[in-house]
UniProtKB/TrEMBL annotation:
Keywords: Repeat. PANTHER family: MITOCHONDRIAL GROUP I INTRON SPLICING FACTOR CCM1-RELATED, PENTATRICOPEPTIDE REPEAT-CONTAINING PROTEIN PET309, MITOCHONDRIAL. GO terms for cellular component: mitochondrion. This is Uncharacterized protein. InterPro entries: Mito_RNA_Proc_CCM1 (IPR051114), PPR_rpt (IPR002885), PROP1-like_PPR_dom (IPR033443), TPR-like_helical_dom_sf (IPR011990). GO terms for molecular function: mRNA binding. GO terms for biological process: mitochondrion organization; RNA processing. It comes from the Eukaryota.
Length: 546
DNA sequence: CTAGGGTTAG
């Protein structure tokens, strides 16, 4: 009996018995009482965690060496799962009446016809699918790290009668081309869009500017800004701030300041622009420049605000200079712009990272006593530092509390919890969180899966690994270079050399170039294992991409 | 994604 496509994860967990754990540990509600004294209270170092799974005497630690699951029913279930050989097509047409969606069918085609744009278009022309906005959005998201199939699909759809791309799909395509540094194609598309009323928007231009700045093409980013009017988008203070912010994020606050000087008379002044520069200078530890900008800000009659000061708090925290950070906090209160939730998050997170967990929790108490309300990001930080401090039980309680406090959990909340569970090799805890994400319609991203995949390679859970890869595909999360490297490295270390080889093959076929260290590792391992043929094959493969 | 915060590797 093969489970239906949508419910795999919940089935997996049901069968594993994890959902039957109906007697949770009594929760000490962390947010309703002081935490500083909590460190010594009982239960923290109890390795039996909050799920029955870890209390299982046949826990994962005992099954470290094999490819088997701890819980038989789980193993049975995964065995019955239509396993995906990642080197083959995703959904092989099965006998019977299984419906295969257009998206899946197209992705299957795209996996084998990816050599050139013409190849993609030709293959899609023969597949009989008809394009729609949601189809395009899904395919583009799945191949957002893979511009040939993405752009090929985009071009194919454009040529189909009765279909016209929406502005949103065009923006998505612009962004993918920019991410892949295909700037020539990106501009061509932008030109094409400008011929259609309402297609090039502020969003489009922002994406273009951000991608150029990220690739350190600052001159081109400025040209894009200058040319905005031609595309029918107004060149105003908001867009100048986008340009400056993009440059700061591309590690050139100097370019941002130049742009500011060049265009400020044209678009006017705002405290946002000054704060972007203060932020930029603080990030690269040029505090004197940051102070200079702050003075200029005041000269122009704009008062530094919480954002301005928070940049300085962040700078001191990065240096682990907590006394200076503290004195900025005091100054903020004196100047009438008291620290807010962002300021506290930065300060608490830095203390926690510096292993000063009690001081960090003190910040939490202080913030609450001042009536500042924690938000999602704040709780995410708190969960992160508690986990890093080995207080997973407290982290779990905060996670639970968020709901009660009416604060939404986001993808980072889950990513943090999942990463922590994976670090402790709590496989089912991690999978349960993934399922909860699904239930709450929280869309996973690459960073959700990375720790899970890494854990699978470490624990040699090949079936779970394949399960996760298909889960990623279904959630339109496309594998990037880093993830492939993680897989190859992890599998090498666990001696799963054949699998490591096939992932190498796959990444090369997708146009990624594995780093030298990864190649060396794999070759060495193959050599040591006496896998001569495979070694030669891998060497040949690598020589083709260098 | 539209000023400041949170995920990080062997």
């Amino acid at each position: 009996m093969v489970p239906k496509t949508r419910l795999e994860l919940s089935k997996l967990l049901q069968l594993s018995g994890i959902l039957r754990s109906s007697t949770p540990c009594p929760l000490r509600c962390i947010s309703r009482r002081p935490l500083c004294s909590a460190a010594e209270s009982s239960g923290f170092h109890d390795t039996r965690s909050w799920l029955d799974f870890d209390a299982d005497p046949n826990g994962p630690e005992n099954a470290d060496s094999g490819d088997e699951f701890v819980i038989p029913s789980l193993a049975d279930w995964v065995q019955s799962y239509p396993l995906l050989d990642h080197t083959k097509a995703l959904h092989k047409p099965k006998s019977g009446k299984e419906e295969i969606s257009d998206v899946d069918r197209m992705c299957q085609i795209l996996k084998t016809h990816r050599r050139s744009l013409e190849d993609v278009v030709r293959a899609l022309n023969g597949c009989g699918a008809s394009p729609s906005k949601s189809l395009l959005e899904q395919v583009l998201r799945r191949f957002s790290n893979d511009w040939v199939p993405a752009f090929g699909t985009f071009s194919w759809a454009k040529s189909q009668t009765g279909y016209v791309h929406s502005p949103e799909v065009c923006d998505l395509m612009v962004d993918i081309l920019g991410k892949s540094k295909k700037f020539h194609l990106m501009w061509e598309l932008a030109e094409e869009m400008s011929g259609m009323e309402g297609y090039v928007s502020f969003v489009t231009m922002s994406k273009i500017i951000r991608r150029l700045a990220k690739a350190k093409k600052f001159e081109d980013a400025i040209e894009a800004f200058k040319g905005m009017n031609r595309f029918g988008v107004s060149k105003d203070i908001k867009s100048l701030n986008v340009l400056m912010d993009a440059m700061v994020k591309g590690d050139s606050v100097e370019s941002a300041e130049e742009a500011f000087s060049a265009f400020k008379d044209e678009v006017g002044l705002s405290s946002e622009s000054f704060n972007i520069l203060i932020h930029g200078f603080c990030k690269c530890r040029k505090l004197d420049d940051a102070r200079r900008v702050m003075e200029e800000m005041e000269k122009h009659g704009l008062r530094p605000d919480s954002v301005s000061y928070t940049c300085f708090v962040d700078a001191h925290c990065r240096e682990k200079d907590f006394r200076s950070a503290e004195s900025i906090l005091k100054e903020m209160t004196q100047k009438g712009c008291p620290p807010n939730v962002v300021t506290y998050t930065i300060y608490m997170h830095a203390l926690g990272k510096a292993k000063q967990i009690n001081e960090a929790l003190g910040v939490y108490e202080k913030m609450k006593s001042r009536g500042c309300v924690p938000d999602t990001s704040f709780y995410n930080s708190l969960i992160y530092i508690l986990s890093k401090a080995g207080r997973s039980k407290d982290a779990q309680e905060i996670f639970e509390d968020m709901e009660a406090e009416g604060v939404d959990r986001d993808v980072l909340t889950y990513n943090t919890m999942i990463a922590a569970a994976c670090e402790r090799s709590q496989e089912l805890v991690a999978l349960k969180l993934l399922k909860k994400m699904e239930e709450e319609s929280c869309q996973p991203d690459l960073k959700t899966y990375a720790p899970l995949l890494k854990m699978c390679t470490r624990k040699k859970r090949m079936r779970v690994l394949h399960f996760l890869l298909s889960h990623m595909l279904r959630n339109n999360v496309s594998i990037d270079l880093g993830t492939y490297e993680l897989l190859v490295r992890g599998l090498c270390k666990s001696g799963k050399l054949d699998k490591a080889c096939s992932f190498l093959e796959e990444m090369v076929s997708k146009g990624w170039t594995p780093r030298e260290t990864i190649c060396k590792l794999l070759i060495e391992k193959l050599d040591a294992a006496g896998m001569v043929k495979e070694k030669e094959h891998a060497e040949k493969l690598m020589s083709t991409v260098k």
